Amino acid sequence: MRNKTQILELIAHSTREIVPDLESHVFVEADRLADLGANSVDRVEIVMLVQEALSLSVPRVELFGPKNVGELADLFLKKLDVA
Amino acid sequence: MSPELVVTGMGVISAIGQGKDDCASALLQGKHAFDVMRRPGRQGVSAFIGAEIPQIAFPDKMRSQTFRAASLSTQAAMVVLKEAWDEARLSDVNPDRVGLIVGGSNFQQRELTQLHESFRERPQFLKPTYALSFMDSDLCGFCSAEFGIRGLAYTVGGASASGQLAIIQAAQAVMGGQVDVCIALGALMDVSHWECQGFRALGAMGSDRYANEPALASRPFDRDSDGFIFGESCGALIIEDRKTSERREIQPYAVLRGWGLAMDGNRNPDPSLAGEVRVIQSALQSAAWSASQVDYVNPHGTGSVLGDAVELRALRECDLTHVHINATKSLIGHGLSAAGTVEVIATLLQMRLERLHPTRNLVNPVDADFHWIREPTIHRIEHALTLSFGFGGINTAVCWQSDR
User: Fold this and answer.
1) Superfamily (CATH H level) for B5-247
2) Which residues lie across from B103 on neighbouring strands?
3) Comparing B62 with B273, which gets the higher pLDDT?
4) What is the three-class DSSP state of A30?
5) Interface of chain A against chain B, CB under 8 Å?
6) Could you tell me if B309 and B273 are in contact, meaning their C-beta atoms sit under 8 angstroms apart?
7) Can you tell me the distance from the alpha carbon of B217 to that of B227, in angstroms, rounded to the nearest whole number?
8) Are A51 and B125 an interchain contact pair (Cβ–Cβ within 8 Å)?
C-alpha cells in the first residue's frame, strides 16, 4: 500500500517530467500545478503518468476537483483504497 | 497592380547539414549521408537505405519543454522556421498578418507507430496528448504558439509535391491579401517501416540492389537506378510582397515570377508526360518567360525509372534541353513532403552563391543530351524552374528570377 508521501513524490516526479523547468523545485502540498507553469494539457499528462505508476485505471472525470498537489495526493489515496 | 512576390528568409535541415550555410557547403561539396536507416521504427524485413538527420541542434531561446514535447517532424519544423524567421526579421511584422502553410499530410507515421506499439498492452494509460499529436495540424499549433503567428496556419497535402504546393499556396495567400507575409514549410516526412515497405512493394523505393553500397543507391537520371531513396529533410521559406520587405530593408533571395499546378486525373503513382508538359508551360506562361530564358532547372528527379525518363521527355518537349540541370535528391535523398520546399531552397542558395552543386552517381544518364552538372560548377542562375510531382497525378512548377 502506498502512503501520501510516496504519492506526493510520484506527483513531483511526473510534474518534473512534463515541466523540466521544475527540476530543482521543492514541492509542497499547497503547490498548484497551474501556478508552477503546467497548462491544462500538461496537468492531464501529469495525472495520467501518476495513474500509470499507481496502476490506477479510473475515468478521468473522477480525478477532477483537487485544488493543489496535496488534495490531488489525497484523491489518489482515496481511489486506491476503493480499487 | 498585383504584388511582386519575393523570398526574404529561408531555413533548412537535411542529413548533410543543419542551417543554410552547412547545407549549402555540403551540397556544393557533393556530400551525402546515405546508409542503412537506424532510427527506431524504420527497420523492416530487410534493411532500408536512406539519409537520416544525425541530430537536431536545439535553437537558443526556445523552451526545452516545448522542444521535448514535439515530434521529430515538429522539432525540425521549429528549427528551420526559427532560422527563416530571424533572417526575415518577422518579429518586426504584425503577427496578425503572418501566415504559415505546412506542406505534407500523414507525415508523422513513425512517431505514431512507435506510440501505438508502446501503449498496445496498456491503452488505458495512453498519453492524453495523442489526441493532439496524431493530427499533422499539431505542427501548426506548435509553431504558431512558439512564434506567435496570428494570421493563418494550416496544412496542404499533395504527396511528393506538397512542399512546392505549400509555396504556391503561400504565394496565393499573399497575392489574395489574406496575409502580408506567408511562410511555406515542407514538413519532414517521418516514415516508419510500414511506409518504406509500402513504397518498396509498389516499386517506387529503390530495391536491395545497393544494400551493401548505400552510397551508390540514390542515382536520379542514371540508367542503373531502380527507385527513389528516402532522405529526411525540412525547409521553410518566407514569401512576401516586395513592398513589405523594403520596409524592413531585407535583400530578397529571388522573385517568384509564376507557377503552374496541373492534375493528371489519375489516382496512381505513374507520371504523365502530358501533365508535366502542361504544368511547365503554364508556369512559363504565368511568368511571361520563353523556354530559352530558363538557364537552370531543379527537377523532381527521384531515381524512379519511369519518372525520370518522363520528366526528361517533358523538358525536351518544352525546349528545355539547354538548361543547367542537377539532381538535389542525389545528395539528400527524397524528402517526400519536404522535397519541394527544400529543393527550392537548394535552388535559391545556388542562385545566391553563383555555384551549382554536383549530381552524384550520374554515370550513364537516361538522356545524355542535357547539360548535366556532375561537378561543382560556377554559374549565375538568372531564371530557374523548379519541378515537383506527386502520386495521384499532381504536377507543380515554379519560376524564380534572381534579384541581383
Assistant:
1) Thiolase/Chalcone synthase (3.40.47.10)
2) B156, B186
3) B273
4) coil
5) 18-21, 41, 44-45, 48, 51-52, 57
6) no
7) 9
8) yes
* CA-derived radius of gyration, chain B: 20
Mean pLDDT, residues A43-65: 92
Q: Domains, chain A, ranges and CATH?
A: 4-82 (1.10.1200.10)
Homologous superfamily (CATH) of B259-402 is Thiolase/Chalcone synthase (3.40.47.10)
Nearby residues of B118 by Cβ (< 8 Å), 6 or more positions away? none
C-alpha torsion angle, residues A45, A50, A55, A57 (rounded to 10): -50
β-pair type (B5-14, B254-263)? antiparallel
Joined together, the cell numbers standing for residue B78 give 521549429
Give the CB-side neighbour count of residue A73, counting CA atoms within 13 A: 24
Which SS3 state, helix, strand or coil, does residue A34 take?
coil
- Cβ separation of B125 and A19 shorter than 8 Å? no
Contact A61, A3 (CB under 8 A): no
Q: For B218-227, how does the pLDDT look when each residue is reduced to its tens digit (9 = 90+)?
A: 999 999 999 9
What pTM was estimated for this model as a whole?
0.95
Contacts of A20 in chain B (CB under 8 A): 64-65, 68
H-helix or E-strand containing B12?
Answer: strand B5-14
Query: Do the two domains B5-247 and B259-402 of this chain adopt the same fold?
Result: yes
Tell me the torsion sign for CA atoms B10, B221, B307, B313. positive
**Contact, B125 vs B353, CB < 8 A?**
no
8 A C-beta contact, residue B157 and residue B6: no
Q: How far apart, in Å, are the Cα atoms of B151 and each of B74, B140, B178, B192, B223?
A: 20, 12, 8, 33, 47
Grid cell at residue B265: 486525373
Cα–Cα nearest to B331, from B200, B229, B206: B229
Domain definitions of chain B by residue range: 5-247, 259-402
Q: What percent of chain B has pLDDT over 90?
A: 95
- Cα–Cα distance, B232 to B71 (Å, whole number): 14
Which string of DSSP letters, residue by residue, matches B44-81?
A: -SS--EEE----PPPPTTS-HHHHHHS-HHHHHHHHHH
ipTM of the complex: 0.89
